[in-house]
Design goal:
Two copies of one chain form a homodimer. Chain A is α+β, with helices and mostly antiparallel strands and 143 residues long. Helix content of chain A is 36%, strand content 21%. The first copy, chain A, has four helices and five strands; from the N terminus they run H-H-E-E-E-H-E-E-H. In chain A, strands 1-2-3-5-4 form a five-stranded antiparallel beta sheet. The radius of gyration of chain A is 15 Å and the shape is globular. The interface between A and B is medium-sized, with 34 and 34 residues.
Amino acid sequence: MSECFYCENGNKLHSLMIEICELPCGKVYLNRDQKHKGRCIVALKDHKTEYFQMDRKESEEYFWEVSKVAEAIANLYHPDKINYATYGDSVPHVHVHIVPKYRDGLNWGTPFDDSIPKQFLQDEEYNKMIEELRKEILKLMQG
Amino acid sequence: MSECFYCENGNKLHSLMIEICELPCGKVYLNRDQKHKGRCIVALKDHKTEYFQMDRKESEEYFWEVSKVAEAIANLYHPDKINYATYGDSVPHVHVHIVPKYRDGLNWGTPFDDSIPKQFLQDEEYNKMIEELRKEILKLMQG
């Protein structure tokens, strides 16, 4: 699947996101563009392109992981609402964007918008977020 | 929850969508605006506002239902990709927009956009879609 940047796991992927941790069905990434503080992506480890290509067991586990990642983001950054989106017309590999929204903040009340300027962080800021998110996600996954 | 139009189940809800069927955890609606042919909504029956407020059992069932509704849309209308989104900054009740996308069609390659003109159908067209979707969803739910 060399045309799928999730499967390829190369420069294109790494220019957009940084791996936080691997879960049973999903891989969790921190979005490099942090204009919505805490924004993450959970990509399915298998290359499937629609939710209904997952069997029931994989579907159950994958969406549970999505929920736990959202909960970790909520616990750490206290958004007022979390948005979730799977688009992928051009990158159909199943992945969910988990986008924390803040009242009176960017795109509140409208879909998050990737056409507005990105906000990148310093490496030490990414590292701090990755470390605290990994810790919180793994804690929540242990139930 | 009189401020939640999903819980209220009144005129506001009915102006936007038409009920197709009720599943164990979700209620399935046909979106009145059919500029993306087959667009549906699956709302959680419980009033919860984040995925992680569902316990594991409800989460497993709800997302399975979302997948089966998407599969029914795929079987009937043959979109090239399905998009899924939960926004809800102003209507936080958990619901997923299931939006079929068609190559070279509206919003292909970009998030679906509710600010562009809506496309309403005649009642008999809605009724035909509701009937075929209900039949297909219930068939898929039976496995």
